[in-house]
Automatic annotation (TrEMBL):
Record flagged with keyword Disulfide bond: yes
SUPFAM superfamilies: alpha/beta-Hydrolases, DPP6 N-terminal domain-like
UniProt keyword Signal, yes or no: yes
GO function term, MF aspect, one: carboxylic ester hydrolase activity
Cleaved signal peptide residues: 1-32
Record family assignment: Belongs to the cutinase family.
Protein name: Uncharacterized protein
Keywords assigned: Disulfide bond, Hydrolase, Serine esterase, Signal
PANTHER family: CUTINASE 4, CUTINASE RV1984C-RELATED-RELATED
Taxonomic placement: Bacteria, Bacillati, Actinomycetota, Actinomycetes, Propionibacteriales
One family name in Pfam for this protein: Cutinase
Organism listed in the record: uncultured Nocardioides sp
Length: 652
């Protein structure tokens, strides 16, 4: 398992260029004999005499994992690993108090300064002899400290060329890791280096642009703050044996520009491709071949390929160099671009667009009855001008203006973690719960007031408070738009983990039960009655489980029989929302005629869960909001995070 994981890692972070030549001869002063990939000897006749990638290893246990599995690297690139420091002695329990007392003067770390100097001379040699070979610098434990020392040495102007050839810095088991330094930190929230503050800090230039990847294994006593005051058990090593799992999590962001890649662009609109979409770091692009309809857009944070491609396959050829990672290394890149039609139906709009124009992310949409407002939750901090703490916030989006407003606010107008309960027909008033209580937000008066615990919001924005239900029954948030009919439930556990959910539709004016029935809640699924049509007949039930969210519609007049193909239903029962895992349709109930709103492009991504989750249909059946995780719904919405989209039937 470890071997294959290492091979995948090397393929992602090191196989960034075509196999050009043999590994570079080891520079003077290097320690252990360097290792080369199997292709190195065959490439020795290449005129440049340089490897595709040089990994300069500053010490520690992890280099063997790279060295031993080079033959499994996809594409068999030429890779040279240069060890500049002998492996430090293994730390055992008896060394614990000495490490605490001596810090970096302990024999395990002694000599890190000299090792750092050798790292710098090695990187400078690569830069001089092989200017187009990216350098990856790494180290484990004592080697991570040596790598830090090398970065400090490279801060001088005389090492600018070598600095600009660095593609990545990997610090595994870093005893000086400090999450406040920035960079990409792969660690538990409590973990930081045991010797933080007692050795070389990362220079400012190295903390920019995700150059440095630093990891602390939670089992590593030199890294885990939670274990800082504990005495290790006899025979316990102070440094963890492997960081392969953590290294694998970094996937394709470790590196260098790939010589061949493929991407899709949407036709019929101005789409764009950036480095992330191409599986590369942010890059500067120079055109070699560019099909008609496409062009390069220069941006400070990385160039883009923009435009509307022709349908089908076309080839783009560019020269690319990193903006922040290895900016002096240029590579020729061949990109196969496939022009495809957008998955979203014409007229679809991105709801969760940030103030900067980029997709911000969000989920769990709710459309008002008139279809003019979408209420949703998001952790994004770029949807409104106000600075927000990191938590789930509640927003309202105006379909007519595209304006986004924060509605999850306390009576003192402070942002709170909030989740919607209901919205009035015109979108003016939002009922939400926060910190165990119900609150009513009036968007016109910009006020938030407390609401009774059993309150429901009617379509005209009025609060209705229902009497205490019969013993054993509880109120749900489902009620008819005018508040006349309300839904009660009673939950009875069965054998195993299944639950019988009894449902009653009660006429609040007469307190009579109009419809009732029972559904069985499957294991690991939670049902929540959500919306009721005006006549009290059709009930939408939301469901949630560890595998995702969904909903279905039942007919309360027919013993809670499920309505086939219905995840939501209009108030008159004429339109259904049929939401599968990969597609969403609006269906006419009487005829079965379907209007497809979105369909995931199967094969474009490896979905580990349904890309389509939360959906909401306006009560008149003309407007739909849904959250979807996919890159091909709309042009320029190039993100794998979940976004919310909106569609309204033309002419309504």
């Amino acid at each position: 398992m470890a071997a294959s994981t290492t091979a995948r890692l090397l393929g992602l972070c090191l196989a960034g260029t075509a196999a050009v030549a043999a590994a570079m001869p080891a520079p003077a002063g290097a320690g252990a004999a360097p290792a080369t990939s199997p292709s190195s000897a065959a490439a020795a006749s290449q005129p440049r005499g340089c490897a595709d990638v040089v990994l300069v290893w500053a010490g520690g246990q992890e280099a063997d994992l790279f060295r031993d599995r080079l033959e499994d690297v996809p594409g068999d690139p030429s890779v040279r690993i240069v060890d500049v420091s002998a492996r430090a002695p293994r730390l055992e329990r008896d060394d614990w108090s000495a490490v605490q007392r001596q810090g970096l003067e302990h024999p395990h770390f002694r000599g890190y300064r000299d090792a750092g100097a050798r790292v710098v001379s090695t990187a400078a040699g690569v830069a001089q002899r092989c200017p187009d070979t990216p350098v990856v610098l790494g180290g484990h434990s004592a080697g991570a400290v040596a790598a830090r020392a090398a970065l400090r040495r490279m801060s001088g102007a005389e090492h600018r060329v070598a600095r600009r050839q660095l593609a990545r810095v990997l610090l595994a088991g870093d005893p000086l890791l400090d999450p406040k330094e920035g960079g990409h930190v792969e660690t538990t929230s409590e973990a930081r280096g045991f010797l933080v503050g007692r050795g070389p800090r990362l220079p400012r230039w190295a903390r920019r642009g995700d150059l440095v990847w630093s990891a602390c294994n939670h089992q590593d006593l030199l890294c885990d703050a939670a274990l800082r005051d504990e005495v290790p058990l006899p025979g316990t090593a102070l440094t963890a044996p492997s960081y392969v799992t953590e290294l694998h999590r970094t996937t394709a962001d470790l590196g260098t520009v790939r010589p061949r890649t493929a991407a899709t662009m949407l036709t019929g609109g101005r789409d764009r491709l950036d480095g992330e979409a191409l599986g590369m770091p942010p890059v500067r692009l120079t055109v070699v071949r560019l099909p008609r309809g496409l062009r390069i857009a220069e941006r400070r944070d990385g160039d883009l390929i923009v435009g509307s491609p022709r349908p089908g396959r076309q080839v783009v050829v560019v020269r690319a160099r990193g903006v922040r990672l290895a900016p002096s290394v240029e590579r020729r890149v061949r990109i196969v671009v496939t022009g495809v039609s957008p998955a979203g139906r014409p007229g679809t709009v991105l709801v969760t667009r940030g103030r900067d124009g980029d997709p911000a992310g969000g989920g769990s949409p709710l459309v008002s009855a008139d279809g003019g407002t979408v209420i949703y939750s998001s952790y994004a901090d770029n949807l409104v001008k106000r600075r927000l703490p990191e938590r789930a916030h509640l927003f309202a989006w105006n379909a007519a203006t595209g304006h986004t407003e924060l509605v999850g606010l306390s009576p003192e107008e402070e942002p709170v973690e909030a989740y919607w309960r209901d919205v009035s027909a015109d979108g003016r008033r939002v009922l939400f719960h926060s910190d165990g209580a119900l609150w009513l937000r009036d968007r016109d008066t910009r006020t938030t007031t407390a609401a009774p615990a059993r309150a429901q919001l009617t379509e005209d924005g009025q609060l209705v408070t229902y009497p205490e239900p019969p013993e054993g029954w509880t109120h749900t948030r489902a009620a008819s738009p005018d508040g006349r009919f309300v839904v009660l439930e009673r939950r009875t556990p069965r054998s195993g983990f299944a639950v019988d959910v009894a449902v009653r539709v009660v006429d609040s004016t007469t307190q009579q039960v109009v419809h009732e029935g029972t559904v069985t809640e499957p294991t690991d699924v939670r049902y929540a009655p959500a919306e009721l049509t005006a006549d009290g007949r059709y009930l939408k039930i939301d469901s949630g489980s560890i595998s995702g969210r969904g909903s279905h519609v039942v007919d309360t007049a027919d013993g809670l029989r499920s309505v086939a193909g219905a995840n939501d239903i209009s108030d008159d029962g004429q339109r259904l929302l049929d939401a599968g895992c990969f597609a969403l349709d609006v269906v006419r109930h009487a005829t079965g005629e379907a209007t497809r709103l979105v369909a995931a492009g199967l094969g474009d991504h490896d979905y580990d869960e349904c890309p389509l989750a939360g959906t909401s249909l306006s009560r008149d059946g003309t407007a739909v909001a849904y959250d979807f995780r996919g890159e091909q719904v709309l042009p320029r919405v190039r993100t794998r995070s979940t976004q919310i989209y909106y569609w309204r039937s033309p002419g309504t």
